[in-house]
């Protein structure tokens, strides 16, 4: 490990925070207010910002990729701060980040940012979220990444969330994460003075009762419309006592706390993996 003197580190930090290369994406589309607020606050601070995001809303697409049709990207003008380079992509949020990293950008960015999403991404929502998946694509490539969401689908006030995003990135530049993870950040949609603080949280569980409404179109053909209803919110117990002392993102957001949850793409259950070592199979049976 290279040890730097304090003056050298402070000089490096000032340089990084003054000239960071940022890739910004989302799942709400190129015209969403959330991504404009996020990209513009960093552009106004003098950072090199590139936006590559869907050309239309692609919420709840998860980590889907486009494999069987071409992906198109068109440069957009007049939407963001004049210094921002912006592309509208025909693909999914994960497509956008993958395309940016491997085709559109001249080099890797310092950070991949996704959001600010219109609506929260808490608990098991992250498995379906295009916002989280866009940021996770950056994490997969070893780039520090953050997904930002504001807990309202109707609010158009993103200044508080954007200001916190800027503060968080400065913190990440000063104290880099020890390993590639995604920070999933949710900001309460309340007045700045009503935010009670910042909580480091673990992922909670949100269960939905998925109701499919059966409908008939004007031509007499049947179709179904998914109408999920939040049924309950549950905290899952960990086998580690210290983990159970940490609030879940679902719990903390109720208290008007900004939540920061570190996520990883390795979904292996080590506890169950240990249990599976005790299983035995007679493979000779499958050959008879």
Explain this structure to me?
The structure is a single chain. With 288 residues, this protein is of the alpha/beta class. It has two domains: 6-203 and 241-272, 3-Layer(aba) Sandwich (Stationary-phase Survival Protein Sure Homolog, Chain: A); 205-234, no CATH class. Helices cover 28% and strands 27% of the residues. The chain contains eight helices and eleven strands. It has helices at residues 6-18, 33-44, 93-104, 130-140, 159-174, 241-244, 249-254, 270-276, and strands at residues 21-25, 48-54, 73-76, 85-89, 111-118, 145-150, 182-187, 197-200, 205-216, 222-234, 257-263. The strands form two sheets. The protein has a nine-stranded mixed beta sheet, with helices on both faces. Helix 4 (130-140) links the parallel strand 5 (111-118) and strand 6. The protein is globular. The protein starts with 5 loop residues before the first helix and ends in a 12-residue tail after the last helix. The model is unreliable at 1-17 (pLDDT under 50).
